[in-house]
Write a structure and sequence with these properties.
This protein has 20 helices and 14 strands. The chain is α/β, with parallel strands linked by helices. It has two domains: 240 residues, 3-Layer(aba) Sandwich (Rossmann fold), CATH 3.40.50.300; 210 residues, no CATH class. The termini are far apart. 38% of the residues are buried.
Length: 465
């Protein structure tokens, strides 16, 4: 919907516009989505039966809330999605720093404008995307950053310190009539957290002792890591008490949610070079991520972010594109691209102290297990004797991340049962790249099930007996 063509307070009244609070806007729009059967938070996956209902209840109740969960669980993504529940356009008094509604100006400047111009008070429109404010809570964050401070420039212009117009508003009042998010709230110094107490309960602010009361209208949402309550910092008790709801987030529960998240978030479609990452490789990445999360060698308090899986999928795609640039063939990811994700992912995982020096070994072991699990899940019961028979008489096959698919297929020769293998892996249109990817996956699975020998030297891998 385009911006309304309403420029004055009088025209706004004639249009029949109703003034709603932010929480009323969100409540009404959320109820409309629920009634229409539409998703409340588009793009949020795996939370349909857990987090989403809790957040919906909190918003319907008009509660400010805290999203509590480990890194990479989509807390910030969900907070930003909530702005989609605001009205698409809302009127503000033109030039207002804190987005005053034309019906109810609260700052001194807008009250003076409304008194002087009456029904001709100028009106502008803000899109809901402009009604979101966010602050990453760092230890150096000040009260002035969040709430406001005296502007020395305005004082130097001749105004007195007692003049409310000498105040430079901080991020919170500038997000008035919108949604404000504080990420990693426990990292905010406790004395700074105190400044948010009035915002949450009395809905006003104080700046340097000014007699300044601004009845702010906003939804305040914070994110935090559970460990932050005791390790890096804590949310002070009075502030926790003022949040109406605390919602615990989590990593994807099911494998299909993990896969859907990778497909949604990973950059697997390159404009300059088309690249294909077969489904079985994405499943290996998803299973690997879940195994790393469950591993006793990994510090579970830190968690394993969803970005771990996303970055791994993108690294595999990049490896295929690199091979394409060298060989000139189409970019199709294969099992030979999997080893590249281990060193690239090392920095995303915190290990237990006893595992120091064994990090790569642990990740490689779990990647092999994920590959074996995917092989059994994808190809269980499939007759691979035709492929294995290629090696029964001492044959070998060399592959690697720079070996072209055409060369691999030529060296392997005709493989009985290839059509059934491709069908089982969901390959609808056969191509040299996809055929090589399927055969390499099958060979790796046979190796991991002790039915085929394998030797790796540098970037080269030799399969055979």
């Amino acid at each position: 919907m385009s911006q309304p063509d309403i420029k004055t307070l009088a025209a706004l009244r004639e249009s029949g516009h109703l003034h709603k609070t932010v929480k009323a806007e969100i409540r009404d729009n959320l109820l409309a989505r629920l009634a229409a059967g539409e998703p409340s938070f588009p793009g949020i996956l795996g939370y349909e039966d857990t987090v989403v209902p809790e957040v919906e209840r909190a918003l319907l109740a008009g509660h400010d809330l805290v999203l509590l969960g480990e890194r990479g669980q989509g807390k910030t993504r969900m907070i930003r999605t909530i702005t989609g529940l605001l009205d698409e356009w809302t009127p503000v008094i033109t030039g207002c720093e804190i987005n005053d509604h034309p019906y109810a100006p609260v700052c001194v400047r807008c009250q003076q404008v409304a008194h002087a111009q009456g029904e001709q008070t100028p009106v502008s429109w803000k899109h809901r995307d402009q009604r979101y404010g966010e602050k990453l809570a760092t230890p150096d964050t000040s009260v002035g950053d969040l709430i406001g401070d005296v502007d020395p420039i305005k004082v130097a212009e001749g105004r007195t310190l007692g003049d409310p117009e000498t105040v430079h508003y901080g991020l919170v009042p500038r997000t008035n009539r919108g949604v404000f998010s504080v990420n990693e709230l426990p990292d905010l110094a406790e004395r700074i957290q105190v400044a948010l107490l009035n915002v949450l309960e009395e809905r006003d602010i104080q700046v340097r002792g000014y007699t300044l009361r601004l009845p702010l209208d906003l939804l305040l949402i914070a994110s935090a890591n559970p460990e932050d309550y005791t390790n890096r910092g804590r949310i002070i008790t009075p502030l926790k008490d003022r949040f109406g709801a605390e919602v615990r987030t989590h990593y994807p529960v099911d494998l299909h949610h993990e896969l859907a998240l990778i497909r949604q978030e990973a950059l697997l479609q390159w404009e300059s070079t088309p690249v294909v990452v077969p489904d079985h490789l994405l499943e290996i990445v998803a299973r690997w991520t879940r195994l790393v999360r469950e591993s006793p060698q990994v510090d579970q308090r830190s968690g394993v972010s969803a970005r771990f899986a996303v970055a791994a999928a993108e690294t595999i795609a990049a490896s295929a594109v690199r091979r394409s640039a060298v060989t000139g063939e189409s970019a199709v990811a294969r099992v030979c691209d999997l080893p590249s994700v281990v060193p690239a992912s090392r920095g995303k995982v915190e290990f237990e102290a006893a595992e120091e020096g064994r990090e790569l070994e642990v990740l490689e072991h779990l990647l092999r297990k994920a590959t074996a699990d995917t092989f059994r899940a994808s190809l269980a019961g499939l007759d691979l004797s035709g492929l294995q028979g290629r090696f029964d008489e001492g044959g070998i096959l060399e592959t690697g991340d720079l070996v072209p698919a055409a060369q691999l297929l030529a060296d392997l020769g005709t493989v009985p049962g290839l059509a059934q293998l491709l069908q089982r892996l969901g390959v609808e249109e056969e191509s040299p790249g996809l055929a090589a990817a399927a055969l390499e996956f099958a060979m790796e699975g046979l190796h991991l099930n002790r039915r085929l020998a394998k030797e790796t030297v540098g970037s080269r891998t030799v399969y055979g007996h």
